[in-house]
Amino acid sequence: MTQTFKGYERGDGTIGIRNYVAILPSVSCANPVAEAIAREVSGVVPLLHSNGCGRGGCDLMAQSVALQNIGKNPNIAALLVIGLGCEVVSAEGVAMMSAFANRRVERIMIQEEGGSRKATEKGIRIARELLEYANGIEKKDFPMDRLVVGLECGGSDAFSGITANPGVGAASDKLVSLGATVILTETTEMIGTAHILSSRAKNEEISNQLVELIEGQEKKANDVLGALAKQAISPGNMDGGMSCIREKALGCIAKAGSSTINQVTAYGEIPSEKGLIVMDGPGYDTESMTGLAAAGAQVILFSTGMGNPIGFPVVPVIKVVSTSQTYNHLQDDIDINAGIVLEGKSINDVGESIMTLVSEVANGRQTRAEINKQNGILCIYTQTTSF
């Protein structure tokens, strides 16, 4: 594994490992125009989502922050924001935040342009100009401490907490030791582990924040599900042999290794600290990855048991599977086989394989999700109804 990677330096000092021109609708009503532009301009990436104007309070704030911060993700070289003209989360606001980050950004309002056809025609011209700009950015060498790595798990099985998640944890510890930032999320899947994570906090304030965050999610689960809260796992988890939320939670936090927790952040918030960070977020994979992308992750480590092919539009997602049986069955969708632990290899062996691949992906190698164009869509955490 090399100790450096070749990346793209942005105006705000962040480093991209990809160099995308992205088209971001400020509201789902503008999705079709973003799609139409992307169809005509090869190489641009539409960031489609289902969010509109029917939110208020903390949910509206989460939507605003997530869209604004996704536009600042280091893997985006230039951004075209498509607004309708009457939405709550304005295109101006989203574009302004990217401009404040010294990112090349342009904006189009469908209603101002005279409709979707005229907006699309203008967007095609702008997108081509932005592509030319992005293609002129040269790669440079950067140390591994400039990486921000998100952690995710989905479709877990009974072996996830034994092989894949601890393997990711070994890689997480190595990344932290190199000065990188690693973000653990999925608060709903940490229920029952507040005493473990709080004991790893760097100070009492962060310890108390962790307890409040995780116990708050447990109370919400109990309020919504009652007696079923302790069995709040997906059908796929059950099919994979998992028994309860506590088992899933112990596997979830294994992804974070054993490093000290340096900060607790809100959903989609960009960390101000380095090292291991805990971000509030749901267990739903697409919502969780959207939050990680908004927080500035350039790459995501995604462990799975049953197998999950989903990726993210502007962030490469590395899939780590828990058993050789699933790896052999789903090789087109999986990057790393952690099932070798069940065949005599060590957790550290898996961690080293993950670290090697992280380095290669940071230097341009495509993940399976990228090759298969498993881009998915943006999906933003609705805090008042999700758990």
CATH architecture of the largest domain: 3-Layer(aba) Sandwich
Please report the number of helical segments.
14
Record field, number of beta strands: 14
Determine and state the CATH class of the largest domain.
Alpha Beta
Mind summarizing the main beta sheet?
Answer: 7 strands, parallel
Output the radius of gyration.
Answer: 20 Å
Q: Give the proportion of residues in helices.
A: 25-40%
Q: What's the shape?
A: globular
Mean of pLDDT: 91
Briefly say what this structure is.
With 387 residues, the protein is α/β, with parallel strands linked by helices. The protein has 2 domains: 20-135, Rossmann fold; 143-371, Rossmann fold (3-Layer(aba) Sandwich).
Task: Give a written overview of the molecule.
The chain is of the alpha/beta class. The chain has two domains: 116 residues, 3-Layer(aba) Sandwich (Rossmann fold); 229 residues, 3-Layer(aba) Sandwich (Rossmann fold). Helix content is 39%, strand content 18%. It has 14 helices and 14 strands. The strands form three sheets. It has a seven-stranded parallel β-sheet, sandwiched between helices. Strands 4-3-5-6 form a four-stranded parallel β-sheet, with helices on both faces. A three-stranded antiparallel β-sheet has the order 2-1-7. The longest helix has 22 residues. The two termini are 38 Å apart. The model has no long low-confidence stretch (mean pLDDT 91).
